[in-house]
Amino acid sequence: MKKKNRVKKHEEFQKLIHSGKKAANHSFVFYWLPKKEDEGRIGITLSKKTGNAVKRNLIKRQVRMMCQDLIDFDQQKIDGVLIVRFGYLSNTFEQNKKNLEKLLSKATM
């Protein structure tokens, strides 16, 4: 996932979480708002309780790869925040990718 397709600022995360639509499953929570210009963006976050910094960065890299495979940022004109839950750790990469695909299909309806 390219850096231009990431939500980075704290204010943007808060705006999306407090005023966006929400969808959730066992592994993820996704907040999103439609936008009219530019390309779509996604921000990824997870709790410190998930593990140490090395483990959290591994999870974020995996989720970025899933998003890169599943989302066409040119077509999807949304800003979103993806929160990784503890259920992510109990599933395999493929199961988590299927969970994310189902969640994103709910969000784009």
Summarize the structure.
The protein has 109 residues and is α+β, with helices and mostly antiparallel strands.
Task: Please tag this protein with its features.
109 residues; alpha+beta; Ribosomal Protein S5, domain 2; four-stranded mixed sheet; single chain; 3 helices
Textual characterization of the structure:
With about 110 residues, the protein is of the alpha+beta class. The protein has one domain (about 5-105): Ribosomal Protein S5, domain 2, CATH 3.30.230.10. It is built from three helices and four strands. It has helices spanning about 10-20, 55-70, 95-105; strands at about 20-25, 30-35, 40-45, 80-85. It has a four-stranded mixed β-sheet with strand order 1-2-4-3, with helices on both faces. Helix 2 links the parallel strand 3 and strand 4. The longest helix is centred in the middle third of the chain and has 18 residues, at about 55-70.
